[in-house]
Write a structure and sequence with these properties.
single chain; mainly alpha; about 0% strand
């Protein structure tokens, strides 16, 4: 129950906006899926399991970092556009 309250605080954010922690966990879970895919493709191409796992190991770290920053850039870009006041271009 205490852990549940902590998790709710960690992942709570303003409506329509992901928290930094949620973005990080989303990026990690997506990388798990992506790395499994990379390992499978690498194994099909090379035929070597050790090589496939090596390729997957290298790309997982770089892509977690890239995805996290990509997610934050999109979040900030969306936030700025939503929060900008609408200006009327109609002139009398």
């Amino acid at each position: 129950m205490i852990l549940d309250q902590f998790a709710k605080k960690l992942f709570s954010s303003k409506p329509g906006k992901d928290s930094n922690a949620k973005s990080l966990l989303k990026s990690i879970s997506w990388r798990i899926v992506g790395t499994i895919d990379t390992i499978i493709i690498s194994y099909i191409i090379t035929g070597q399991l050790v090589m496939a796992v090596s390729i997957g190991s290298v790309e997982v770290v770089s892509k977690i970092i890239l995805y996290y920053f990509h997610e934050r850039v999109w979040e900030n870009a969306t936030k700025e556009k939503i929060n900008e006041p609408a200006t009327e271009l109609v002139r009398s």
